[in-house]
């Protein structure tokens, strides 16, 4: 995997462009992107490429053919230096994360009490359970995290509205 290099002062547009070019060079199709999140943003990868996405970024996580047939919502999250996502959980999904480039931290807890922030290890898979409280945290540099949603109700898959925010730096509900 080619290393993407950012600095804490890299402009957001430049970081997004580098990640976009990386994904395209790896043969991934972007179906949507959001560059307007106050903490950074994300790229959504074509669902038809889930097997390739899994094989490239999560080969250490076994998937069944049944899981491949479900919606898995592959994404790349980009978190800015010193920014953080809301303290949140989800009713209809678990998540799998892996830090690929840069730096990021994670906070997690099974209760509403905010746990201790820990640095994410590059290349190490993190599995978040349905209902587990969590937060992705930007450290001293941009962080790029691959993500797969594991929908707990395949007939009613999770979406961006399936976020319960317990605390948010940007006053979102």
TrEMBL record:
Entry keyword annotation includes Repressor: no
InterPro entries: Man6P_isomerase-2_C (IPR001538), RmlC_Cupin_sf (IPR011051)
Domain Mannose-6-phosphate isomerase type II C-terminal: 48-168
Keyword flag Cytoplasm: no
Keywords: Isomerase
GO-annotated molecular function: isomerase activity
Protein name: Phosphoheptose isomerase
Organism (species): Algoriphagus limi
């Amino acid at each position: 995997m080619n290393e993407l290099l950012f600095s804490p002062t890299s402009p957001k547009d430049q970081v997004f462009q580098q990640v976009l070019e990386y994904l395209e060079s790896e043969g991934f199709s972007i179906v949507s992107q959001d560059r307007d999140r106050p903490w950074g943003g994300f790229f959504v990868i074509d669902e038809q490429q889930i097997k390739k996405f899994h094989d490239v970024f999560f080969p250490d996580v076994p998937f069944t053919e049944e899981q491949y047939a479900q919606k898995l919502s592959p994404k790349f999250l980009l978190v800015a230096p010193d920014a953080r996502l809301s303290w949140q959980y989800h009713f209809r999904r678990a998540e799998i994360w892996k830090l690929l480039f840069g730096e990021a931290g994670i906070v997690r807890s099974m209760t509403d009490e905010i746990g201790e922030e820990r640095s994410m290890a590059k290349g190490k898979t993190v599995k978040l359970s349905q209902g587990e409280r969590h937060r992705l945290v930007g450290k001293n540099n941009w962080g790029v995290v691959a993500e797969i949603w594991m929908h707990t109700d395949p007939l009613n898959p999770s979406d961006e509205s399936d976020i319960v925010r317990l605390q948010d730096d940007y006053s979102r509900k």
